[in-house]
Amino acid sequence: MVGIIHLLPVVEVLGGERLSALYGLPLEAPDIAILMRHRDVLFGLLGLFFIYAGFYPAYQLLAFIVGFVSVLSFIALALSVGGYNAEIGRVVIADIVALVALVVAALLAVY
Predict the structure, then answer these.
(1) Most distant CA atoms of the chain, gap in Å
(2) How far is Cα 69 from Cα 12, in angstroms, rounded to an integer?
(3) pLDDT tens digits, 34-91
(4) What is the DSSP-derived secondary structure letter of residue 3?
(5) For residues 74 and 88, is the Cβ–Cβ distance under 8 A?
(6) pTM for this model (two decimals)
(7) Contact 91, 24 (CB under 8 A)
(8) What is the DSSP letter of 57?
(9) Residue/partner pairs of 25-32 with CB below 8 Å, 24 or more apart
(10) Do residues 7 and 42 make contact, with C-beta atoms less than 8 angstroms apart?
(11) Nearest-angstrom CA–CA distance, 36 and 51
(12) How confident is the model at residue 69, as a pLDDT?
């Protein structure tokens, strides 16, 4: 589930309008569009790694660490800055869902 959540933004790499709609931000400046598309490519790589680690236990500890850092850092940044739009709010909710999935998966891996 965490892998899929991280893969979702990858489809936005191809289109500026879709990327703008995903985050609810105007991305007219080429610099911002490049940075956001690159961010989505990196999230895609993370998503693929999380899915891969689901099938290969040797990588699961690293996947848990990276997953927790990824979702907790975004949630913490969003809450500390505040004032974000509804689209970013949906990303926060998706990361909370991913956090719950990570906690459940980590508990299942330990027990």
Answers:
(1) 49
(2) 23
(3) 888 888 888 889 999 999 999 999 999 999 999 999 999 999 999 999 999 998 899 8
(4) H
(5) no
(6) 0.79
(7) no
(8) G
(9) 25/85, 25/87
(10) no
(11) 23
(12) 96
